[in-house]
Structures are given as structure tokens and as C-alpha cells.
Specification:
Layout lengths: L8 H39 L1 H12 E6 L6 E2 L5 E13 L7 H11 L7 H10 L6 E5 L3 H9 L7 E10 L7 H4 L2 E2 L3 H9 L15 E2 L2 H5 L1 H5 L3 E7 L5 E10 L7 E3 L3 H11 L3 E8 L5 E7 L5 H4 L4 H9 L21 H10 L8 E3 L2 E4 L2 E4 L7 E3 L1 H7 L2 H11 L1 H10 L21 H11 L9 H8 L9 H13 L9 E4 L2 E2 L13 H16 L19 E7 L21 E8 L6 E8 L5 H19 L1 H8 L60
Parallel strand pairs: 2-10
Antiparallel strand pairs: 1-8, 2-3, 3-4, 3-5, 6-7, 8-9, 10-17, 11-12, 11-21, 13-16, 14-15, 17-18, 19-20, 20-21
């Protein structure tokens, strides 16, 4: 008997229930997943469609910043002294190269000099933003430019184009006052961050340049302009396939800056310096315009545009005459005898009679020390006029303590010493004007082993422009301008206009507090220095421009302490020589221009070295002035014409013989010169020493 299978309906029901539950759970999850996917698709395709379309477009197009053309710097007549020129260059885009090292190897076969700068090129390329072209070499010749373009298809990531590079057409003539441009570095970026400002993106562009010194630095924001950009279409690898002209934005050029400088005067000033070192400033005493501000020796700022080689920079830095230092406004020097006009005004301000005489026997005994006059044999009896004319140290030794150091310091500050001026260039040296308060502060600040008391013996050195006194060429020019102007405290001005808009004129010049009579005495002494045959700068000051004459003052300042000895030989090594100075204004009868010139460690002194150079620069200034040219070219009055047969050598005979001494070897008395009769401009002359033969 066979048995048949039994069916248990309860088991079947349980299995069917479990199956149905799993079906419902999986179905529900599937439905929820479908709904979520549908919702997400709806969000992406409907609600966020615009956002992702923009992102897709951005992936398709790149916006590459284009540095703007830098604004030009012009002189007072519109002559370009800092501009831009076209330059062929070759660039590398790291992200478009298959192998950067291989690319540079191939490029080195076309441009061999890039092999010498390989490490710096790699550093610049790696530091650049993605897809940003990095200049590898600028100023390509036409042959080099054509060669790179010929093999461009075989050099992925390499391109050649033409851009604008900064150019200084006058080379070193304006190097210090204009400055130069260079690539931004990490310190520049950090300084912006430290100020709490956002770093402009253009600063990361390898082809962008910023101002480093002078006007380029002070007006960098105005000269920069606004960056533009090229909108380019790229493929999936980021390579450029086309340019979207409509989406590109042109760069806005920087603003032009117009200065008060005169290119002809500036170039002539650097030329007359030759190999000497120093600074020179020329000012218009009517409005304070600076026509010349030169420092010598100079350097070529064009070297710095593309990056100056290390060996050249090290040579400039280590040269003893410091071509990188602006000696017109940063370098300070003792003014020597050019300071005696300041001392004279302080003496007059103290109520001392200018006709009072002091007998100069070649020195002045004070305490246990003898202060020497530059002329060993002495000058004889000197009043103020003759003391200025002959630069007699002894006269000022005698008189200075009757005025006092604080009065001298106050007069010096009124004439422009001890100040830094708002001329558009920061970092000027304000120099040092000693006083009783200055010494107390200096002693406390430096912990100097001194009680801070000012001693009268120290005033003697300051009275002749030595001691702790330090000034720069700009301050000397301001002093000379104020004395020449006679009424107003002239303020210097360097910048005329920015972006076509005239710079606001300086506030009205304050009145000088000196009496006209006192200024006339000092100016008459300066006129005698340059035009009296016994003046310390007679021969060196003759302009040869008709009846136009200068009024000036020579100076020779010690650069070291001689102890009890003399100044030593003139052919001493360069660093042991004294400084030569000359200040002047012209015409002396109707002042218009003032000049201050310093020669660092000069071969001789103020009359022999500084005055002739100042004369040549002043002649250039006067010949460029239409009013002065008209005065020069007008016919001489009949009584001024020399008689027929007159010996030209006798008319205006100059100084001869050699003069030695300390502090200020600025004079060379004339040989066989015929003394002139006193003139209205020469001031009182109760005593006239016989010129040595």
C-alpha cells in the first residue's frame, strides 16, 4: 500500500505571507528610490539648471588676466622719461606641457641662454597659477621670435607673443627719482595682507610689474591701471582652442604722471658729474618746482625690468660710491661753509652789527683748543660781508656763541633744514640740526656717556657747517631758494599732474621771518663770492651769459676727524677726501633759479670741484628760459663794450695759486687780478685784502 504526500495548508500560508511582505518592502524601497531619483533629476534639470549651465560654461571657457599698460612718466615739457615699448617674448604654460623638463630642453636648443636660467624658470612656472602663461624670455630678436613660432607645433605649452615692457629712454639720468619696476615678491604680497587688504589677483600674474623706488613706487596704484582679460575656450585638458572676443575685457592703461623735472637739465647734470659721486637739486624759487634732482653715479633701471642678474646687482651694491643710493634726498652730509649764511642770519637776528670786525690771524683759540681757519695766514680784519665773501672761519668762531646754538638751530629750520618734504617720494632723510634739546634727547636715546649738556665749543663747529650737523642736497636747495626769494618760505614741488589732472598746489608759502635788510646783507655776500675778484668762487662762477651773474657760496666739509693734523694730501684715497659743495642762485639781481650741488669725497674743494659743475648746470637752466635768452641776446649798452685792443685775458681775470687748509678749501685767490670798484650789489666793503700774487 503506497503512501501519498500530505499537504499542510498552514505552512503554505506562512510562506505566502512572508513572500508578500518582502515584496511590499522591496517594492516600497524601489518606489522611494525612484521618487528620490526623480526628485533629484528634477532639481538638477529644472531648479538648478542655470547654475550648472554656468559651471559647464566656466569649464569650457577660462578668463585669463591681462596686465594693463603701465602709465607713462613725463617731464615738464611732455618728454617721456618712463614709458613702454613693444617686446617679443616666449611663454610656457605648465598645464599644457606633457613634460616640462623635456619642453625646456627643446626650448634651450632654440634659445640657448634659457639654459643658464633653467632653475629660475622652473621656479616661476611652478609658482604660477594653473593655465597661466609664464614668460621664459623677453626682448627676443626677430630671428628668435620667428624661430620659436616655426617650431611652435612641436612644443606643446610654448607660445610666443608681443607685449609691452617698461622702458627708461634716458637710462641712469632719472634712475633715482623715477625708480624702476620689478616682479612682485612674497614680501610685497605679505605687506598687503598685513594691512588687512585683499591682494589683487593681477599680482600673481608672472608678467606683472610693480614700482620699486621713487615715483614708480609712490604712484604705483595710479600707474598700474586696471587689468583686462581674455575669455578663451578650452578643451577637456585645458588647452586653448578658441578665443571668445565678445567675452574678453580690454585692460585700462595706467594714468600718466607729469613731473616738474626738465630732461635737458637732468641729463646735463649727470653728464657734468662724470665719475664723481654726489647729488644735485635745481629749483625755481618762484614756485618751488624742482627742475633737476640727480644722484651720481647712477645705474640703468632698464636692467631691473626683466630681473637684474645677481653679479650685476652685487657689483652695484658693493661699489664704494653707492650708485643705488639716492644722494639727493637720502644721503646726508655736513654742509661745510654753505651753512655760513644760516649762521650769519642768526648773528644778525641776535642784534649784532654786521660792520663789526673780527681780526683773523688763521685761527681762534677757545679753551685749550685752537680752531683753525681754512687760510693758515689769516684774512685780516673781517666784517660780515667780507667774512661771507672770503669764507672766513674765524669770524664765525668769534660771533656764533653770541647768537647761541638754539638761535642758529631755529634759523636753520626756518630756512628748510631738518625737514622732509612732501614731493611724492617717501623715505627722505631729514638730517640733523643740533640744539640743546637735540643733544639731551640724543644722549638719553643712545645712552651716550655724556651728561647731555651743550658746550659752547660745540657751537663753533656747527657755525661753519661741521659737528653733528647733517643735511641733504634738497634741503640746501630749499635754503638757497628761500634766501634768494627773500619773502616767502618756498616749498619744493615735484609732481605737476596725475592722469591729466593738475595736482593741488601747495598751500600759500609762509612769510619768511627775516628782515629784508638782513637778507640783503647775506645775498650781497653771496654775490661777492661769485663776482668779486677776491671772492672764493670768482672764476668758477662766471657764466659768460651777458650781464647775467650768479650769487653763490662754496663749501668743503670734513668727512673724518683729522685730530691735530691737517686735512692731508689731495690725492688721498677716495674715502678719506673731503666733500665739496656749492649753492647759488641766478640772476643775482633778479633771482629765478637756485642750485645746490654736493660732491662726495671730491679731489679738491668747493671752488675747484663743485662750483664749475654747478655753473654748467645753471647755464643749461638759464638758456632754456625764454626770458633769460632774451636778456642774454639783447645788445649791450655802449658803455659796456670793451675798448678796441683790450687784452681779453685782463678782462675778468680769474684766481690763481693754490690754497690749502682745513674744513673748507673753497678759495683760490686771484693772481694779478685787478680789484673791482664796489658795486651796489656787493655790499659794504670797509676792508679789502690785497690779493696774493
Amino acid at each position: 500500500m503506497s503512501s501519498e504526500p500530505s499537504i499542510f495548508f498552514s505552512d503554505v500560508n506562512e510562506r505566502q505571507g512572508s513572500f508578500l511582505r518582502r515584496t511590499f518592502v522591496l517594492g516600497g524601497l524601489t518606489a522611494l528610490g525612484g521618487l528620490a531619483l526623480t526628485g533629484r533629476l528634477a532639481q538638477l534639470q529644472v531648479f538648478q539648471a542655470g547654475q550648472y549651465a554656468t559651471m559647464a560654461s566656466n569649464n569650457q571657457f577660462n578668463f585669463r588676466l591681462v596686465p594693463p599698460p603701465r602709465g607713462r612718466i613725463l617731464d615738464r615739457d611732455g618728454v617721456v622719461i618712463a614709458g613702454n615699448r613693444p617686446s617679443f617674448r616666449v611663454l610656457v604654460v605648465r598645464d599644457e606641457t606633457k613634460d616640462l623638463d623635456q619642453t625646456l630642453d627643446l626650448l634651450g636648443q632654440l634659445l640657448p641662454d634659457t639654459l643658464d636660467r633653467r632653475r629660475s624658470i622652473i621656479r616661476d612656472v611652478n609658482a604660477a597659477p594653473r593655465f597661466s602663461p609664464v614668460p621664459v624670455k623677453s626682448d627676443l630678436t626677430w630671428e628668435e621670435f620667428a624661430r620659436v613660432n616655426l617650431y611652435a607645433n612641436e612644443l606643446p605649452g610654448v607660445m610666443a607673443d608681443m607685449n609691452e615692457a617698461r622702458y627708461y629712454p634716458f637710462g641712469g639720468a632719472f634712475a633715482h627719482v623715477i625708480g624702476y619696476v620689478a616682479k612682485p615678491n612674497d614680501r610685497d604680497i605679505q605687506s598687503i595682507k598685513d594691512r588687512g587688504e585683499q591682494v589683487p589677483e593681477i599680482l600673481y600674474n608672472p608678467g606683472f610689474r610693480i614700482g620699486r623706488q621713487g615715483v614708480e613706487k609712490s604712484f604705483d596704484t595710479d600707474l598700474r591701471g586696471e587689468a583686462g582679460g581674455n575669455r578663451v575656450e578650452v578643451d577637456a585638458r585645458g588647452r586653448v582652442v578658441a578665443e571668445d572676443i565678445g567675452g574678453s575685457r580690454a585692460a585700462v592703461p595706467g594714468k600718466d604722471v607729469v613731473l616738474t623735472l626738465d630732461a635737458d637739465v637732468q641729463n646735463r647734470a649727470l653728464e657734468v658729474y662724470g665719475e664723481e659721486s654726489g647729488g644735485c637739486v635745481v629749483m625755481d624759487i618762484r614756485n618751488g618746482d624742482i627742475l633737476c634732482m640727480v644722484s651720481a653715479p647712477s645705474f640703468d633701471p632698464n636692467l631691473f625690468v626683466g630681473g637684474v642678474p645677481s653679479h650685476i646687482y652685487n657689483a652695484l651694491r658693493d661699489y664704494e660710491r653707492k650708485p643705488l643710493l639716492d644722494k639727493a634726498i637720502y644721503g646726508t652730509f655736513p654742509p661745510g661753509s654753505t651753512f655760513k649764511m644760516t649762521t650769519a642770519l642768526a648773528i644778525l637776528d641776535a642784534g649784532i652789527n654786521p660792520t663789526e670786525r673780527v681780526v683773523c690771524t688763521g685761527g681762534y683759540r677757545y679753551g685749550n683748543r685752537t680752531f683753525r681757519c681754512w687760510r693758515p695766514g689769516g684774512h685780516g680784519a673781517m666784517d660780515m660781508h667780507n667774512a661771507i665773501k672770503n669764507s672766513c672761519d674765524t669770524y664765525f668762531y668769534h660771533m656764533c656763541n653770541r647768537a647761541g646754538i638754539d638761535r642758529i638751530a631755529r634759523v636753520a629750520e626756518d630756512l628748510g633744514f631738518g625737514h622732509a618734504y612732501e614731493i611724492g617720494i617717501a623715505g627722505q632723510s631729514s638730517g640733523t640740526v643740533p640744539s640743546t634739546r637735540w643733544k639731551r634727547d640724543y644722549t638719553a636715546r643712545t645712552k651716550w656717556d655724556d651728561d647731555g649738556t651743550w658746550y659752547p665749543g660745540e657751537t663753533l663747529s656747527v657755525a661753519i657747517g661741521q659737528g653733528a650737523l647733517e643735511v641733504n642736497a634738497l634741503q640746501l636747495a630749499v635754503m638757497t631758494s628761500r634766501i634768494a626769494n627773500g619773502r616767502k618760505a618756498v616749498q619744493p614741488r615735484l609732481v605737476k599732474a596725475v592722469g591729466g589732472e593738475a595736482r593741488a598746489a601747495a598751500p600759500a608759502f609762509a612769510d619768511l621771518r627775516f628782515s629784508r635788510e638782513h637778507l640783503d646783507i647775506v645775498r650781497a655776500g653771496m654775490a661777492a663770492v661769485a663776482n668779486d675778484v677776491t671772492g672764493t668762487a670768482y672764476r668758477a662762477s662766471q657764466l659768460g651769459l651777458g650781464d647775467i651773474q650768479m650769487a653763490g657760496k662754496t663749501g668743503t666739509a670734513q668727512s673724518r676727524d683729522y685730530g691735530t693734523g691737517s686735512r692731508g694730501p689731495r690725492d688721498a684715497i677716495w674715502t678719506r677726501r673731503d666733500h665739496a659743495l656749492f649753492v647759488a642762485f641766478a640772476p643775482h639781481d633778479a633771482p629765478r633759479y637756485a642750485i645746490a650741488l654736493i660732491i662726495q669725497h671730491a679731489p679738491s674743494g668747493g671752488a675747484a670741484d663743485a662750483a664749475p659743475k654747478a655753473r654748467e648746470i645753471m647755464k643749461t637752466v638759464l638758456l632754456k628760459d625764454p626770458d633769460m635768452r632774451a636778456r642774454i641776446e639783447r645788445p649791450l649798452p655802449p658803455e659796456a663794450v670793451a675798448p678796441a685792443g683790450a687784452d681779453e685775458g685782463e678782462l675778468g681775470a680769474g684766481p690763481g695759486g693754490e690754497v690749502t687748509g682745513t674744513a673748507a678749501a673753497e678759495a683760490a685767490p686771484p693772481a694779478r687780478a685787478r680789484p673791482r670798484a664796489p658795486t651796489a650789489t656787493s655790499g659794504p666793503r670797509p676792508y679789502l685784502a690785497e690779493p696774493p700774487q
